[in-house]
Write a structure and sequence with these properties.
Organism: Streptomyces nitrosporeus
Shape: elongated
Number of helices: 9
Order of helices and strands: HEHHHEEHHHHH
Helix content: 55-70%
Strand content: 5-15%
Protein name: PadR family transcriptional regulator
InterPro entries: Metal_resp_DNA-bind_regulator, Tscrpt_reg_PadR_N, WH-like_DNA-bd_sf, WH_DNA-bd_sf
Distance between the termini: 11 Å
Number of domains: 2
Length: about 210
């Protein structure tokens, strides 16, 4: 999964309509150019590509407020919203995403309802714990990682990374459940843009998914 698609779709959705420079400014304000591949060229390419795919609608050109050449404005389509929400939900549940994907998902988590955000993050913990148990059961001898020599440090690194990821996720869940932040449907200036609920069959089947 690529973080750039999630970032660009989310930024356009927040604006309603946006041109590439607005999207670029938003993502640079997040520092996304430092922790992801959201460089100017990638942003403009993603806008054009997703317009071709029908995820964004290009509205021709609008005059530049800075006095430069006219700019193409983009608006997210219904298909684009579906794709955005699928990417957002996946970014929060999958235990094996790159850090940039998870970071992008956290940046847009308030576009979901509070209860769904918590449920998705719980899925993430479950996936981390299942994967940790599977890997350690297969690769770590009964005597521990010490018997593997320096290769055992790879297992130690992986287990500590998994444990830290699960601990951070539990902390985020606790903060959300305690009322932190303003989520979709709650109103207020920092609220996310309301997202439709997942279909019942998706929610029911997600608990057993190890993505």
């Amino acid at each position: 999964m690529s973080a750039i698609r999630l970032l660009v779709l989310g930024a356009v959705r927040r604006h309603g309509r946006a041109h590439g420079y607005q999207v670029r400014n938003d993502l640079e304000a997040w520092g996304a150019h430092e922790w992801s591949r959201a460089k100017p060229g990638s942003i403009y390419h993603a806008l054009k590509q997703m317009a071709k795919e029908g995820l964004l609608l290009a509205h021709g050109t609008a005059p530049s407020t800075a006095g430069g050449p006219p700019r193409t404005e983009y608006e997210i389509t219904e298909r684009g919203t579906e794709e955005y929400l699928a990417l957002l939900r996946s970014s929060l549940t999958a235990h094996d995403q790159n850090t940039d994907v998870l970071t992008a998902g956290v940046g847009f988590v308030v576009d979901l309802e509070r209860s769904e955000a918590v449920a998705l993050l719980r899925e993430r913990i479950d996936a981390i714990e299942r994967r940790r148990a599977s890997v350690t059961g297969h690769y770590v001898p009964a005597g521990g990682t010490g018997s593997l020599g320096h290769i055992g440090e790879i297992m130690n690194l992986w287990m500590h990374t998994a444990d830290a990821g699960a601990e951070w996720t539990r902390g985020l869940i606790a903060r959300i459940e305690a009322g932190a932040y303003t989520f979709a449907g709650e109103g207020g200036p920092s609220a996310g843009t309301a997202a439709p609920a997942r279909p019942a069959q998706d929610a029911a089947g997600a608990g057993g998914r190890d993505t």
